[in-house]
Amino acid sequence: MRWRQSADVIVGRPQPTVGDALGVADAWWASAPGCGLVTVPAGEVGTVFRTRVEQVLLSRGPQELCAVCAYPWLVAGYRLTDLVEQSPLLT
């Protein structure tokens, strides 16, 4: 089994635009069926966070730290949009 097939979180390489970051996130979803969260930096704009049901652009905070915070939040049953509302420093 390849590691992608069992990854819970994937942190993608930085992309120049939000559109490119969304494209990379979609490609990771196609290759990682069990993944719960994909994050991809989108140039100077922020970081795209994507789950199977939602996508959010966070414009502040280090991407890796945000991924570490977002994954347990999702496991606890919350949505990414709830995290953004609760953490103004991440928006």
Rough shape? globular
The helix/strand series, from N terminus to C terminus, equals HEHEEEHH
Radius of gyration: 12 Å
Output the number of helix runs. 4
Please tell me about this protein's structure.
With 91 residues, the chain is of the alpha+beta class. It has one domain. A 4-stranded mixed sheet has the order 1-2-3-4, sandwiched between helices. Helix 2 links the parallel strand 1 and strand 2. The protein is globular. The N and C termini lie far apart (36 Å). 23% of the residues are buried.
Main features:
91 residues, alpha+beta, four-stranded mixed sheet, 4 helices, 42% helix
What's the layout of helices and strands?
Elements: H1 3-6, E1 9-11, H2 18-31, E2 37-42, E3 46-50, E4 55-58, H3 63-75, H4 80-86
Parallel strand pairs: 1-2
Antiparallel strand pairs: 2-3, 3-4
Write a short abstract of this structure:
It is built from 4 helices and 4 strands, in the order αβαβββαα. The mean pLDDT is 80.
